[in-house]
Amino acid sequence: MAVAERMAATKGAILSLLTDAYQRRDRVGLVVFQKDRATLVLSPTNSVLLAQRALADIPVGGKTPLSAGLVMAYEVITRERILHPDVQPLLIVLTDGAGNVPLGKKPVKEEIKELAGLFSKKNIHSVVINMEKKAFDQGLAQELADQMGAACYTLDEIRGETLYNTVQKEMQAAAN
Fold first, then answer.
1. What is the CATH code of the structural domain delimited by 2-175?
2. How far apart are CA 7 and CA 12, in angstroms?
3. What phi, psi does 167 have (nearest 5°)?
4. Are 4 and 60 within 8 A, CB to CB?
5. Which of 24, 41, 116, 136 lies deepest, with the highest CB count within 10 Å?
6. How far is Cα 96 from Cα 144, in angstroms, rounded to an integer?
7. For residue 119, which of 87, 79, 78, 80 has the smallest C-alpha distance?
8. E strands, the chain, where?
9. pLDDT in tens, 68-106
């Protein structure tokens, strides 16, 4: 029940971001990480329709290969920077921060820390949205944000009209 509730809130937040991005003619991509892999379900585009279709079938539950998601996001952003060097990327990671599927032989927590550091090192402006309920929050999303050099918000903080303001603030920070 809690997972379905969080996923509904996540989809609502993503749709708000997409609508806002469409109005600004920004490009939005979507990487989903679930089971044992990350999947690029939407290559960067400015089509809200394509994004809505991609969102409709996002799987819920199971293992969390956060490392794979970070690798794929990094690859997509790196490719977009080459194709569109005038565009400033903003990565938004929606997670509870609890990755549990490593890519290699290192402990998953160590792997995530190293991968998260790439975003900070390469000046990829990032935002982490903590999807964990406050009562169960172990601080893992905040830890990820700190490792990425990113701001961290809770889902409650970005609902409704505050979502637009939050994204605008982060985009302005990315441009500076």
1. 3.40.50.410
2. 8
3. -65, -45
4. yes
5. 116
6. 9
7. 78
8. 28-34, 37-45, 90-95, 125-130, 151-154
9. 999 999 999 999 999 989 888 888 888 888 888 899 999
Question: Do the Cβ atoms of 141 and 128 come closer than 8 Å?
Answer: yes
The token pair that represents 84 in the structure block: 């569109």
Model confidence pLDDT, tens digit, residues 17-43: 667 666 766 777 888 888 888 888 888
The pair of structure tokens assigned to 46 is: 């400015």
The distance of Cα 113 from the centroid of its chain, to the nearest Å, equals: 16
Instruction: List, in sequence order, every residue forming a beta bridge with 26; answer none if it has no partner.
Output: none
Backbone angles phi, psi at 142, to 5 degrees: -65, -40
Residue type, 122: K
In sequence order, the 6+-apart residues with CB closer than 8 A to the CB of 32 are 38, 39, 41, 58, 59, 69
pLDDT of 6 > 80? The answer is no
DSSP annotation of 157 reads: G
Compute the mean pLDDT over every residue in the chain, rounded to the nearest whole number. 82
Residue type, 33: F
Question: How many residues are present in the chain?
Answer: 176
**Domain extent listing, the chain:** 2-175
pTM of the model as a whole: 0.83
